[in-house]
Amino acid sequence: MVAVAQHPNIELITYAEVTEVSGYIGNFDVTIKKKAKYVDWDLCTGCGTCIEKCPTKKLKDEFDLGLGLRPAIHKVYPQAVPGKPYIDALNCLKLSKDKCGICEKVCPTDAIKFDDQDEYVTEEVGAIVMATGYDLFKWEEAYGEYGYGKYPDVITSLHFERLVSAGGPTGGKIKRPSDGKEPKNVAFIKCVGSRDDTKGKSYCSRACCMYTAKHAYQVKDKIEDSEAYVFYMDVRTAGKNYEEFYQRSLNAGAKYIRGRVSKIYPRGDKLVLKTEDTLLSMPLEVEVDMVVLATAMVPGEDSIDLAKTIGFSVDKDGFYQEAHPKLQPVETFAAGVFLAGCCQGPKDIPDTVAQASAAAVKVCGMFSKTELATEPMVSEVDISKCSGCGFCVPICPYNAISLKEIQERGHHGPLTRTVAEVNSSLCQGCGACVPACRTMALNLKGFTDEQLVSEVDALCL
Amino acid sequence: MSVENKSGWQPKIIVFACNWCSYAAADLAGLNHLEYPAEVRIIRTPCSGRMDPMLVLRAFNRGADGVLLSG
Amino acid sequence: MKKRVGVFVCDCGTNIASVVDTEKVAETAKKIPGVAFATTYKYMCSDPGQELLRTAIQEHKLEQVVVASCSPRMHEKTFRKAVEAGGINGYLFEMVNIREQDSWVHHDRGQATQKAIDLVRMAVSKVLHNKPLQISSIPVRKKAMVIGGGIAGMQAALDIAEAGHQVVLVEKEASIGGKMTQLDKTFPTMDCAA
Known about the structure:
The complex is a heterotrimer of chains A (461), B (71) and C (194).
Chain A: H1 2-6, E1 10-13, E2 16-24, E3 27-34, H2 49-53, E4 59-60, E5 69-70, E6 73-74, E7 86-87, H3 93-97, H4 102-106, E8 119-125, E9 127-130, E10 134-136, E11 154-156, H5 157-164, E12 185-192, H6 208-222, E13 227-232, H7 242-251, E14 255-258, E15 263-267, E16 270-277, E17 282-288, E18 290-295, E19 297-299, H8 303-310, E20 337-339, H9 349-367, E21 371-374, E22 379-381, H10 392-395, E23 401-410, E24 413-422, H11 433-436, E25 442-444, H12 449-459
Parallel strand pairs in A: 9-20, 11-18, 12-13, 12-18, 13-14
Antiparallel strand pairs in A: 2-3, 3-8, 4-5, 6-7, 10-19, 15-16, 16-17, 22-25, 23-24
Helix pairs in contact in A: 5-6, 6-7
Chain B: E1 13-18, H1 22-31, E2 40-45, H2 53-61, E3 66-70
Parallel strand pairs in B: 1-2, 1-3
Chain C: E1 5-10, H1 22-30, E2 35-41, H2 47-59, E3 64-69, H3 72-85, E4 93-97, H4 99-103, H5 109-127, E5 136-139, E6 143-147, H6 151-162, E7 166-170, E8 185-186, E9 191-192
Parallel strand pairs in C: 1-2, 1-3, 3-4, 6-7
Antiparallel strand pairs in C: 8-9
Helix pairs in contact in C: 1-5, 2-3
């Protein structure tokens, strides 16, 4: 991470969103909204005095998924890159109620800027790599049998990551969210939202089998006399050293039970899991102190809007659609836009890194040329036939057609007329505009009406 | 797939296949040696969006017995 | 434009020739109006195959070329280059798929040969309507944008930057690192995520 921040060729723009993209391969104009941080990062040294002194300290920390607390002025987490704080305007006393202002007084470099505004900048780039990641499936909205999120000790795997992390709210000690006690018996439920057509997604989220094996191992390793129960449909360990890792969990004593959990309900301060061991064909009831759900990976919340803005497609689940599942796994249907990581589909860290490097190579390959050759099989307009109706403009999936005005000589002097124009850099040669044209002014080079008709005629001889 | 064909009549089936999916799928069928009736004639189109109803009518008009659009 | 089509039928070893009577296809092609030359060859995509194409274009003053072989998704670019090397525009060329969509999916020699002939006739009539097309070029701005600063974004940005190009990395949170920074140790090596 630090390598990224320090690299002389990388300009880091954080706390920012892409709002608009125009142009085409080799020539994109990207508008970025830099959200107001209320801290001038050029002046800020990241000393942290403001964070210490902020009186609004008891806000739920998003980074710890609500398991820890943070002040209104804060860093995403202590080792954030860049290591500078920003103000949560909604909860800041100064910005919401015009009181306090302590951070401004204690800041040694006068970096606090309460009048900071959102700022828009435009970047001119030649290629775009999409790496917008994933979100977790909102199980609380779908799984009533697991309590719709009303039992505090039913948590997700990401919560568990925060609990075992040395930098987390418990300093790496596994404690239950409800009473802070160390749980003895922990149940893990896999495929919550994954491989569940009725309540969630049809796909496998790919990383869960492995991180659950890790979590079960960590429970056995960190808590004495503990039990880790893993409820699974299948154990999928396709990957280098993955099966060995799973075996390590089994050897550490993790208990794998094949079966779906049908209900979770509280009994005293424990949780009871109703389930079945499908290998023994036996109903089963297990009492545990904490339940960890391996929830599905789903596309990021704003990712579909971003795809629409840039102009490429998403798959049935909302993940970014690669141009070909096998032969073009990092390209999109928008030339010059590449994919990396979970925005294209669920994957684990090694696969993500590999795909990111592949996307980088595609970009570098593009940049190794000063000019790009364009496929000549694109649509063209015969302006003598074009009526300028504009019917083709919304039909084009690549926004390649626009209307322009031309000057012509008419019977009574100069005449202005509207006609369609195809941007040959944006046109991908699909030809959808051709049948839409009522005056037959549009034709697709290489697949013209004449060519296709002659093929039909030749076959029907 | 097999068609009972006692009269010796051979239908003329014209397929318009999108280069990116159906045409590629027909190639894949070939790679896997999946046999189908030989009366099928495939015309490659850049995309099913390119398909003009005029082409379908033209095919029927010229004596095609069936037209399949796939994309 | 003059109509002098050259038709080249590939045997693809035995991949095509074992089911399709390529000689018959070539002989029949010669009778199609516009066809000035037709021949078969064992492997059209091989060096000698392409050489045959180039010399035939010059010797027979061909204006258009049809190659009947495998799928255009496989070798369209190969033959387009060979056609250009022969001195005519690469888009005055059509390919006929008589392997994936004929010899590999049919076993009746008569029917498969008839299909190949029909497909060649189709391509000949199309190629007579082909026009020379020119590849144009557009300039490239050598600066990349990476949207998202998680592992994927960071890795891509670093790789591009290391190759010597400028990168703008945009992240919606105030820190890069993404979900990865929330993780403890990672499988299968159990090294730290940050």
